[in-house]
Structure formats: structure tokens, C-alpha cells
DNA sequence: TATGTAAATAGATGAGCGTCGATCTGGAGC
DNA sequence: GCTCCAGATCGACGCTCATCTATTTACATA
């Protein structure tokens, strides 16, 4: 209803310039967008999304040897995906001995989750 | 505290099998993960995330000619990103005449948003 | 010390992405 | 009709990604 929200071009044919003046935001959030896009990109693969899902449902540490057989993928590939998630700051890991354990760093998803809702 | 949540290998050295039995989920959500990963992937670029942000803040239709000058990118590149968002079902578009208008399809982000929180 | 094993790393390959300039499409106005 | 313009599409380029096999690393146990 409000024409303000429609954001139509202000002139029907501007002379010597773009079709309309820049009414929309210079945007406060260039860096914020990069941060959140980094998170979204890491979640933008079905395997990684399911990894995060499993890790979140088990609010503790999960052994890698539990995660690998969940997918029809080689062990290095799963390891690769876990590394991606770790680089994005979404998960953390420990390796006290022979086995490695991964867990979700819940704070990492906070900003993105809030923006999305 | 609860060992059940720790998901450690059940045996210290399994004989003739993987290090532990598959205790974690066969996972109900293979297709759901694909759906949500598709959304996340589309949001996994700073430009597209900012496009969605701008479109959401203007809960109406926004002219493309308003969006292009927001970024230091060529018009075809912005158009390409808008197409990606459209293919992901995140935005829709109309082109009644010379100008094209884009808007957010809020339902699309619902499932992903809920999963994330 | 030697052996076995879980996980990470290395290297390769084929597919996809982000970006650009150039071109095409189709509505608007003279 | 012809011209102008907004937006979409095309083709190309360099880079990143997901995946694999093969190898390496480091811990455990005998």
C-alpha cells in the first residue's frame, strides 16, 4: 500500500544519470554480511548441514568414527567437510588420543540465526 | 556428564569391524538437508545476502535499478545473483514494463530459520 | 621396537562459481 | 517505423569446490 515501500524509480526517464536516485541503504553491514555469508556457505552443503545437525542433537562431543559411516563417502572427504566447518568457526575439535571428537560451537550460529528470523 | 551424549567408541578395539557401532542417527532428513543446504548455499555469498537483506527491509517490491548501484559490480553480475536467489526460491520477480521488481518470498526461509534456532 | 589403526594431509580431477564485456530482448517514447 | 533504455542472457576467464586414492602422522598395544 505504502508507495515508500514499493521503491519504484523516482523519475520515468532520468536525464544523464541512473534511472533513479539511490534511495536504498548504503548498508551498515558489509563486514557483517561477509561473516554471515561465510557461515551460510559452510552450511551450503547437504553433508555439512547433516554433520552440524547430528552434532547439535548430541550436545556433547562425537567421535569421527561415528560420523564417517553416516555418509556414503570416504573418510578423507568427511574429514575435509569437518575441516570446512571448523574453519568457519561452527565446530571445534579435540583429539586426546587416537580418536578425534567434534562438537558444535553454538555461539557461531547466533548472529546468522538472529538475522534470519 | 552423560556418557550417552559423548558418543565415544563402544569398544577400545573392535574386532573385524569399524571402531564402533553406528549409534548415531540414520537421519530422518536427507531431503530436508538438501532443501536447506540449497537455501544456505544461495545465502553463502555476501552480495546475495545483502540483496536479501535489502529486500527484506523493504517489505515490498524493489526495482533492480535501485539494487545495482548498491554494489561495486556490473549490472549482469547483480542480475546473475538475483537469478540465483530466484532459482533457490528465496525471491520472486515481476516485470510489468521496462523495470523489474524483486521481492522476498518469506516462506522459503521458514524451514531453514527454524532448524537453525 | 614393531605393528596396527584413526584421522589428517597431499595431489589430482572434473564440476561449479563469480565476474566481466558483449550481445540479445522487449517495452517506451519520439 | 526507428531509437533508446532496463534487464536478461551469452561466452569466456580464473578460481574454488567436492570427491577420490594414496600417503603421512601419531597414538596404542603387544
What does this structure look like?
The structure is a homodimer of 117-residue chains. By secondary structure, chain A is mostly helical. Chain A has a single domain, classed as Orthogonal Bundle (Arc Repressor Mutant, subunit A). Helix content of chain A is 45%, strand content 9%. The first copy, chain A, is built from six helices and three strands. A three-stranded antiparallel sheet of chain A has the order 1-3-2. In chain A, a hairpin with a 6-residue loop joins strand 2 and strand 3. Mean pLDDT of chain A is 82; it is low at 1-18. The interface between A and B is large, with 55 and 55 residues. The structure holds a DNA duplex (30 and 30 nucleotides).
Secondary-structure blueprint:
The structure is a homodimer of 117-residue chains.
Chain A: H1 3-6, H2 30-42, H3 46-57, E1 62-63, H4 64-67, H5 75-87, E2 91-94, E3 101-104, H6 110-116
Antiparallel strand pairs in A: 1-3, 2-3
Helix pairs in contact in A: 3-5
The structure holds a DNA duplex (30 and 30 nucleotides).
- For the largest beta sheet of chain A, what order do the strands appear in spatially? 1-3-2
> What radius of gyration of chain A results from the CA coordinates?
22 Å
Give the amount of beta strand of chain A, in percent.
5-15%
Most extensive interface between two protein chains, with residue counts? A-B, 55 and 55 residues
Estimate the helix proportion of chain A, in percent: 40-55%
Question: What is the CATH T-level topology of chain A?
Answer: Arc Repressor Mutant, subunit A
Largest sheet of chain A: 3 strands, antiparallel
Terminal residue distance of chain A:
24 Å
Mean of all residue-level pLDDT scores of chain A: 82
Please count the helical segments of chain A. 6
How many distinct domains of chain A?
Answer: 1
Classify the oligomer: homodimer
> What are the secondary-structure elements of chain A, in order, as H or E?
HHHEHHEEH
Shape of chain A: elongated
Low-confidence stretches of chain A: 1-18
Structural class of chain A: mainly alpha
Total count of strands of chain A: 3
Q: What would you say the CATH architecture of chain A is?
A: Orthogonal Bundle
